[in-house]
Amino acid sequence: MFFTQSLLIVLVCWHTTSALALSLPPQFKQKLWGNLHDPKEVDTKFTTRSLQKRAPVTVCPKKFIDTFPACNYNGEEAINAWIYPMARKIKDMSNQNKCDKICGSTDGFRWCYEASTEGKNCDTTADVVTIQGALKKAFAQRKYWVCQKECFRMSHGGTWRGTLSIGRNETWDENFYCGAGIRDLMFKFYGLGKCISGGNDDL
């Protein structure tokens, strides 16, 4: 009996509070309920951003290696160690909305990365691990052979374009252009399925 009375009191209070809340002006409803959201509401902006971040990055080689050239350099260990820092640099430039070129060298090979755009912005919603996974997949597909200067074109569905060149110190070709102004469709084999799409799942 006591339990039944208590339950009735709770239900009456709950209905009274709900009715009171419905009759209150909006500013008082906010104070009463705080920042609670209708569970049926969907944050479409957040959902869109999340999906964009998870979308794969497309990487297209300027040259397609059919038969891997004979050279005594297999850069798997060095390249795997370099991929995350490179992805971090790419994302840092994106966060600054910066169209620029950076170059460096590590463990016997040289590299350059240039961010450009086919629109107004030089940024991408792709996160670091998505970029990292795409690069890893691209190099793994080529068996990590870096005998000559290679060039890769990156995109992520928007206007951002990234061009990444990498080669050994002794075979680096300054005349081999890899940078802004090279359009996706100019890449040999672009329409023949030689581009890869990679991301988080490729790590």
TrEMBL record:
The Secreted protein CSS2 C-terminal domain is annotated at 47-177
Signal peptide from the UniProt entry: 1-19
What are the alphabetically sorted keywords of the record?
A: Signal
Entry keyword annotation includes Signal: yes
**Pfam families xref list:** DUF6736 (PF20521)
Q: What is this protein called?
A: Secreted protein CSS2 C-terminal domain-containing protein
